[in-house]
Amino acid sequence: MRLYIHGKENLKEIEIFWTGGYDSTFRICQLSRKKVIIQPYYLSDKRRSEANELNAIKTITNKLRNNKDTKAIIRDIIYVSMDERLTDKKVTDAFHNLLKQDFMGSQYEWLGIFALNHKGIEMSIHKDDKAIELISKHAKLKKIQDELGDYYVIDKDNSPKDCVTLFGNLHFPLADYTKLQMKEEYEKMNLSDIIDDTWFCFNPIDGKPCGYCNPCKYTIEEGMAYRFSKEALKRYKWKKSILYKILVKIKNH
After folding, report:
1. 170-171 and 121-122 as β-strands: parallel, antiparallel, unpaired?
2. Hey, which residues does 222 pair with through a beta bridge?
3. Range picked from 1-10, 130-139, 170-179 for highest mean pLDDT
4. Number of structural domains, the chain?
5. What is the 3-state secondary structure of 119-172?
6. What is the pLDDT of residue 131?
7. Does 207 share its domain with 171?
8. Are 213 and 203 in contact (CB under 8 A)?
9. 102-133: per-residue pLDDT in tens?
10. Domain that residue 140 falls in
11. Residue 25: DSSP 8-state
């Protein structure tokens, strides 16, 4: 976290990963109500949903900048391409050591490496998120009280070395929030319309959420089924069906 002089004020700069999704957008909305500088980053991994995510970010940024209750300075998002990806052996080794114990997405290796040069960058994983469950399983989290909102960090004195190496430079401001709690706060901020501008699906079909990728699955199961078309919900139910599981089993053998 850095301090910048803006006019006669010293403003804190908050760095944050922003995907255009429900959770990270919620945190952007929270911070927009504070006198801070928000510097978002988008780390590209060339997934099919990238164009949808970047379009959501552009739309939401414009809405917040023009919102009468916005107090923050929202900087343009910094896009980091795969070609700009750095390497770090210690972080990579820690990632692979943890991977032997539990599955986790490859993005966490890159996030951990990126955070080496952006200590304190915020990662918006929420209470029911698989990622926070994974981190809590292997490491101890410590709550930090802050005037901009409390957040969690890895308790470096009481957590395994690999967890500290991989996640130790990240801040987790939404670890106490469920999606429904976020929805209530979106409404309190009079920003409910922004919910429909967010994007979460990895495999859009005709420009709409597919209903069967993991982000869609988690979104439905966390009480946000209203955001899906009838066709997407049918695909979700099909993937959850016993027949689908049998077919996958047969295919894998």
Report:
1. parallel
2. none
3. 170-179
4. 2
5. CCEECCCCCCCHHHHHHHHHCCEEEECCCCCCEEEECCCCCCHHHHHHHCCEEE
6. 85
7. no
8. yes
9. 888 889 999 999 999 999 999 999 987 888 88
10. 2-179
11. H
Q: Cα–Cα distances in Å, from 234 out to 39, 138, 196, 206, 240?
A: 39, 36, 20, 16, 10
Q: Which two tokens stand for residue 253?
A: 């053998």
Mark whether 174 and 214 lie in a shared domain: no
The residue written with tokens 């319309």 in the block is: 193
Asked if 89 contacts 109 with a C-beta cutoff of 8 angstroms, the reply is no
∠ Cα 117 118 124 (to 5°): 140
> What's the pLDDT at 51?
93
Longest dimension (CA), the chain: 67
Supply 179's token pair.
């999606």
User: Rounded to an integer, what is the distance from CA 109 to the centroid of its chain?
Assistant: 15
Q: Is residue 160 domain-shared with residue 80, that is, in the same domain?
A: yes
Q: At what angle do helices 242-252 and 230-240 cross, to 10 degrees?
A: 60
159 and 44 together in one domain: yes
Question: Cα dihedral sign for 152, 14, 215, 223?
Answer: positive
- DSSP-derived secondary structure for 51-91: HHHHHHHHHHHHHHHT-TT--SEEPPPEEE-GGG----HHH
**Distance of alpha carbon 156 from alpha carbon 138, whole angstroms:** 12
